[in-house]
Amino acid sequence: MIRSRLVLAAGAAMALVLGGCVTLLPKTAPVQLYRFDVAETEQPASAEGPGFWVHRAPTGFARGAEGDQILTMSGNEAAYIAGARWVAPASALFDDAESHAFDRSPGPAHLGRRGEVGAAPLSLRLDVETFEARYLDGAGAAPTVVVRVRASLDRTADRLAVATRLFESRKKAASNNVSAIVPQYEAALTEVMGQVVAWTNTEGAQAGSSPASASTASAAAKPGP
Asked: Are residues 85 and 29 in contact, defined by beta-carbon separation less than 8 angstroms?
């Protein structure tokens, strides 16, 4: 009986200690979530001819930037912006932005989603080599967002390279605030993806891609957004 009372007393004391610890913990400020996409822009058709499907190969993404944290670089030092994250992994948001960029383009290249295209004549792989905010003028200055993407267009039949090209955009933020930095990611990505889409339209058409057939596209229209 005495031992039982001691155990109960010890349990009650521990509960009081834990309760006190919970109330003494500092309040954490909520993390601000951000997203990016390609902005709506005028995109004239960059190539004439029948439409063709392009298979999207898995995207490569720079290590350290592919997650939901916003990467910054100051010289050789890497750090993440405190209290701010992407609403989803940057690699997933990038894939969505790529799809939207092709959907909005009037050019002949149609980016196929999984299950929509049987055997696309071309395969497009994008490797995001850089996706970061660089403090080029010192830690306290406004950073420059750098987005660098290497695009590779291959024939799916024999995996021969059709063309490769490196695209880069740099956009400087107006101030060293997250609200000023994040829009520059979208601005840089919009510029890069516009160039990637136009390049794919031109190189794919010159490669003599066959038009989208009824078996791979029941209609000649592009997939919906």
From this structure: no
Q: Containing H/E element for 185?
A: helix 178-206
Give pLDDT tens digits for 142-166: 999 999 999 999 998 888 899 999 9
Q: What is the CA radius of gyration of the chain?
A: 25
Mean pLDDT by 10 residues, the chain (225 residues): 37 38 52 92 61 92 97 95 96 96 92 68 95 94 98 90 96 97 97 96 77 35 37
The label of the residue with tokens 């992407």 reads 86
Task: Copy the structure tokens of residue 61.
Answer: 């993404």
Instruction: Compute the distance between CA of residue 14 and CA of residue 151 in angstroms, rounded to an integer.
Output: 60
**Closest by alpha carbon to 114, among 223, 194, 219?**
223
Distance, CA of 168 to CA of 172 (rounded, Å): 13
Sign of CA dihedral 107, 202, 91, 177: negative
Q: What is this structure's pTM? A: 0.77
